[in-house]
Automatic annotation (TrEMBL):
Keywords: Oxidoreductase. It comes from Streptomyces vulcanius. Signal peptide: none annotated. It comes from the Bacteria. PANTHER family: PHOSPHATIDYLINOSITOL-GLYCAN BIOSYNTHESIS CLASS F PROTEIN, PHOSPHATIDYLINOSITOL-GLYCAN BIOSYNTHESIS CLASS F PROTEIN-RELATED. This is Oxidoreductase. Belongs to the short-chain dehydrogenases/reductases (SDR) family.
Amino acid sequence: MSGWSAHDIPDQSGRVAVVTGANSGLGYVAARELARRGARVVLACRSEARGRAAVERLRGEVPGADAEFGRLDLGDLASVREFGTSYEGRLDLLLNNAGVMALPYGTTADGFETQFGVNHLGHFALTGLLLPALLGTPGGGAGPARIVTVSSMAHLLGSIDLGDLGDLGDLASGNSGRRYRRWVAYGRSKSANLLFTHELAHRLAAHGSGVVAASAHPGYAATNLQTAGPRAEGRRVAERLMELGNRVVAQSAEAGALPALYAATAPGVRPDSFTGPSFAMWRGAPAPSRRAPWTTDDAVARRLWAVSEELTGVSYDDLKS
């Protein structure tokens, strides 16, 4: 894994990938590099204008790229269901990349706290709806299908406990906004990403499937996520500080996308692995990453799964005995 770069991505010819949030930042870089290696890529984005512009930009950077736009709003389960149920054909890679970070309190179209609703519940529902395509795709030279969910080193800021999960309304609403803390809420959503991968990997193995579920994180990468929250609240000083951090401290989006690309394409990636930058979870080439112990708690993962099925109405019937 030492020194692994985009040049090491194996040939992806014949493979099909769906990348969420691919109109900018890490998602765009991942989609572009997958297309550069021969994959057919669906850029699944909320904004049609930005998504189609990203497709045209990608085709300009990678002549002959097989790329298309797909409308997907992870904050609206009706949109998730429309995308998932209308998808046809093979699917070798689902890269659950899209996300929001440290936003002021708000809710999704379905009434869920925004960060938990978009970052976890939207991707939970999407993965379940696309699972038949993933399970039905024959593995080729690049191996079986993969599901890679992007978490964050900030998952260390927020655990998910059984007490909170016992109250579905509390979880869905972010404690109804009364005790909302944007960074803790973000950390909880990113812990949920890891717990989801943990339980999904377990269920795939129990089903006898070769599909690999893994997670990755970008470290501190310069994207528009850092400034979105402060900008939404008009906190100009915080926005300027985030912009300064992106320029001085953060690694590039190209570097930040590498852990997810590694998890998505490198040979021998283990189920439930967590890949991130090699230097202190912050920057550098992809490497196995530290993760909080609560993200491998089997009981919490099972409970979160049950809660997620109930909240989204998406049941993973293909993984039931």
